Amino acid sequence: MFQLNLGLENKNVIITAASKGIGKAIAKIFVEEGSNIAICARNKDDLEETKSELLKLTDKMVIANQCNLTKTASIDNFFDFIMDYFKRIDILINNAGGPPSGKFDDFNINDWKNAYNLNLNSTIYMCKKVIPIMKSNKCGRIINMTSVSVKQPLNNLILSNVMRAGVIGLTKSLANELAPYNILVNSVCPGYTFTERVRSLSENIAKKNNVKIQDIIDQWQSTIPLGRLAKPEEIANVVVFLASEKASYITGTTIQVDGGFVKSLL
């Protein structure tokens, strides 16, 4: 039987916010492809549980360290921990949960700063850490997780709409700057995906509008041509492909994985 060889065996991969949802699904596929992975998350118990699950799937290296991506000192500690195990970094997946839902008047300036630190600054800072290593190796992959909101802003998610758009600007700029070093930089934009965050978001909206949670989910699904929310692994499959040797001529792209939700031509 023909098997697609993604060329990911023994690659060293960093995946942030990987104890749940899409991040966890990405970590699982990399492990199945024979990669060594380093993961982090804010909640230590969730992180250790995920690490244990992943170790059952592989004899490769799975390292985990608690990290708060809104704090640069915490990222420093995570990266120092990684480098005790990895001598090189091949792939970086910048993944982080989204900021709170709400409209412009719902947030003060500290809320904006927190959203910046969570989604934009954490991506910038992780890139600062890995790019010198990738440059020295003349090779690397960086994939930044954002949202379909960068192509079609979502109602009641103004913090996410703004900060994730900044990540796209960073992605395209880095792709141009780093191409001479064979470092490819892309972004993946999930649509509505059935994760704990999306369920929590649906609960908040349902509570505000005094309706059932399923009513909110049904409303979202009605806007998606495929008629359902994505599974986390469906997003992860695209991420892992972009990180692979099979995607060696793709850089600077912003790819939505949304079941047809975004209606724009590009």
Using brief descriptors, characterize the structure shown.
7-stranded parallel sheet; about 270 residues; alpha/beta; globular; Rossmann fold; 7 strands
Topology, pairings included?
Blueprint: E1 12-15, H1 21-32, E2 36-41, H2 44-55, E3 62-66, H3 72-83, E4 91-94, H4 109-137, E5 140-145, H5 158-178, E6 183-190, H6 196-209, H7 213-222, H8 232-243, E7 254-257
Parallel strand pairs: 1-2, 1-4, 2-3, 4-5, 5-6, 6-7
Question: Could you please describe the fold and organization of this structure?
Answer:
The structure is a single chain. The protein is an alpha/beta fold and 266 residues long. It has a single domain, classed as 3-Layer(aba) Sandwich (Rossmann fold). 46% of the residues lie in helices and 14% in strands. It contains 8 helices and 7 strands; from the N terminus they run βαβαβαβαβαβαααβ. Strands 3-2-1-4-5-6-7 form a 7-stranded parallel sheet, sandwiched between helices. Helix 4 links the parallel strand 4 and strand 5. Helix 1 packs across helix 8 and helix 6 packs across helix 7. The two termini are 36 Å apart. The relative contact order is 0.14. The mean pLDDT is 95.
